[in-house]
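Handout, page 2. Input:
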Amino acid sequence: MKSSRRLRRALATATGLAIAMLAMAVAASAAFAAHRVRHHASAATPADSAGLNAPYAAACLLEPTTGTVIVDQQMHRPWPLASVTKMMLMLIVAEKLHDGSLKLSDQITTSAKAAKMGGSQVYLKEGETFSLDDMMKAIVVHSANDASVAVAEYIAGSTEAFVVMMNQQARRLKLNDTHYYSVDGLPPGPGQSADVASAYDCARLASELVKYPDVLRWSAIDAAPFRNGTFQLRNTNHLVRTFNGCDGLKTGFYYKAGFNVVATAHRGGLRLIAVVLGSPRKNENFKQAAVLLSEGFAQYEMYQVARKGQPMNGSIAVRRASVSTIKPLWGGNVAVFLKRGDQKNRVKIVYQLPASVDAPLAAGQQIGVARVMLDGREVASSALVAPGAVPANGSLFHRLLGDL
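Output:
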């Protein structure tokens, strides 16, 4: 009996030791996994396990001038954005630079909150000041969270107020799959929600951003010095180094979001925007975006209908002037987005002009409109303008003759 009890105690002790060792192994494994996520992440689990075996969770390829969607791969699927969130901050800043309410030389002072931001950063110190231009380089090139907070606070007074602005802008642009909760796109904490958008909404937002030269100036930077050269900004978007014509736009990553990229490139008069969200492997997002862009450039073109300053086919009569006719000029460049090999005779031009115009005319004065039609549908238009100043004939005889 005693030996039986001793055996049971020995077995219990051995079992307890085994359980303890197993628990320690699990804990060590979890700690190692957490360390890899924080420091050496080379793979990500998308928010939905359905995307695990695919190269991405959602994708879109879009031509921004016409808004034509070339590739749609679950492009309306909402997805965690990570630092792609910063694209809306970029747009708000670009618009305010354009309307004059901000200047690139504005000095942005780092708050205590900005200085404490984690993740990707340029290690701003409380009270440290940089120009808006430098802060935006840090945000767009290096995806700096501390700079994002500093700029948001400078514009709106607080990050919370700036997030309200971001969502108002999203509603104005009808980005129906988009909602923001932060200015930086960091992973949400307990009880918080992730910033989300669809691939299509990201492409639409990018279409707005590429209208602003400052945005493309920042996003095309490969590397740049910061803080008097003591810190080097390195573009997180590898495609600016590896894909011909790529000049932007933004990347994002955290564990549950996967690897995201919004990329734009310009070749031969054609600009395309590719969005890849939720790639489970590092660099897979860049590879897939490059494939989308390459296929787009191979299959499509911008067919140049007319260039600014080019005379139209035909002329218009001028009354009360020493010249009897003028050839109006195209007021802007006009191109039509076509699949390569499509028949160009599908494109027609409809001129809307009066039968005659009266002098005097100023150089560049609009006198009509050219409407460009593709298969009977208007796809572009341009003002038609006077090629030069046409003074009125000062002779009373000529004025009277012109009235006959």
